[in-house]
Design brief:
The protein has about 350 residues and is of the alpha/beta class. The protein has 11 helices and 13 strands. Strands 5-4-3-6-7-12 form a 6-stranded mixed β-sheet, with helices on both faces. A hairpin with a 3-residue loop joins strand 4 and strand 5. Helix 3 runs antiparallel to helix 10, helix 4 packs antiparallel against helix 5 and helix 4 packs parallel to helix 9. It is flat and about 90 Å long.
């Protein structure tokens, strides 16, 4: 496992494209200046040792050196030992609605992005709980099994979108049924399921049946509502630009609304609570308090220990490439010139 100590130094890599642009401008200025001085044939005779490619090679070596020096400042570390540690926590599964209605922009920037931010902020508040992620629309799909790897969870979370499932609609019952398979630790007494949705459901009355089965297995269901009760249209975008609004079979614009009453019913039946997700800070704080009140179960988890610094290798390579840049002259290399690799042989 790789760990990065000082990620802030990655911003230094922003200098590289600036240096490339400056180099190109300098080369253009040099070419124009030479053309004003003499024609191409005369310049070739006056400067027979000038290489057309060495300046580019020097820039490449210089940029490579800066890149490795930057990586050295970031200080990558490699975990050299995997050990088992005892942790206490709750098993938490997040079921996130990725149906098209989650594209509605009645809550900024849209319902889905708001949902992802809420889950990300909740994860930031966790210490040793295990988490899993489910995506659902017309069907439910496992995204991430129960794990303590919060970094992986956030990576999967950010990649979620409304195009990941071909079956559209909102089948909350399937999400609940899939979540029941996530809790594979029979000794874990505290099992929590968070359903993040606008409350639209196309599974008929089977959702409440699924909730009852889940509660029988000791799962508490919390619901988080995203959106506004007054509703909003669903924009269809291409390259970030709204092309049209989604319409129904009659050609009328579809208005999707937050159904808080249904989400509250699910939470009541699931021995949980309904949380309005409009205010991220308040919602996360409420969830944090709820989780703190739950009993924690001790479980074993494997994690990397004894991380070793690797910065010296990157600094060494960086200094090597900078040294090669200094040693590389812009005139032609004699032995390479004989090989004529770049078709630069002089015409007599």
């Amino acid at each position: 496992m790789i760990q990065l100590d000082e990620k802030i130094y990655f911003y230094l890599l922003g200098i590289l494209p600036v240096l490339i642009v400056l180099f190109l401008l300098l080369q253009l200025w040099r070419k124009r200046t030479r053309n004003k001085f003499a024609d191409t044939e005369l310049l070739r005779r006056l400067t027979p040792d000038r290489s057309k490619f060495k300046s580019g090679l020097k820039l490449f070596l210089f940029l490579l050196g800066l890149t490795f020096l930057t990586l050295g400042l970031v200080n990558p570390k490699i975990g050299t030992k995997l050990e088992t540690v005892k942790r206490e926590g709750v098993d938490i599964v997040f079921a996130i609605d990725v149906s098209k209605s989650m594209l509605a922009e009645d809550i900024a920037p849209n319902r889905l992005e708001k949902s992802k931010r809420l889950v990300s902020e909740i994860i930031n508040q966790l210490a040793s709980d295990r988490i899993g992620i489910i995506a659902y629309a017309g069907q439910a799909f496992p995204q991430l099994p129960i794990t303590t790897d919060y970094g992986a969870a956030k990576m999967f979370l950010q990649n979620m979108n409304t195009d990941m499932l071909t079956s559209q609609g909102t089948a909350i019952d399937q999400a609940i049924e899939l979540a029941t398979t996530y809790y594979n630790d029979q000794e874990q007494t505290n099992r929590v399921l968070f359903i993040i949705s606008d409350g639209e459901d196309h599974s008929g009355g089977s959702t409440i049946d699924a909730v009852e089965k889940a509660t029988d297995e000791g799962i508490r269901i919390f619901t988080i509502g995203v959106g506004q009760a007054k509703g909003a249209p669903i924009p269809i975008k291409r390259n970030g630009v709204v092309e049209r609004l989604k319409k129904d079979n009659k050609g009328e614009t579809v208005i999707t609304k937050l159904d808080e009453s249904f989400l509250k019913e699910i939470a009541d039946e699931g021995n949980g609570e309904y949380i309005n997700g409009s205010n991220t800070e308040e919602a996360v704080e409420f969830i944090k308090e709820q989780l703190l009140q739950m009993d924690k179960k001790e479980f074993e988890a494997k994690q990397f220990a004894e991380f070793k610094d690797q910065f010296q290798w990157f600094l060494g390579l960086g200094l090597l490439f900078l040294f090669l840049d200094v040693l590389t002259l812009e005139k032609k290399t004699t032995w390479l010139r004989k090989l004529n690799l770049f078709n630069e042989r002089e015409v007599e």
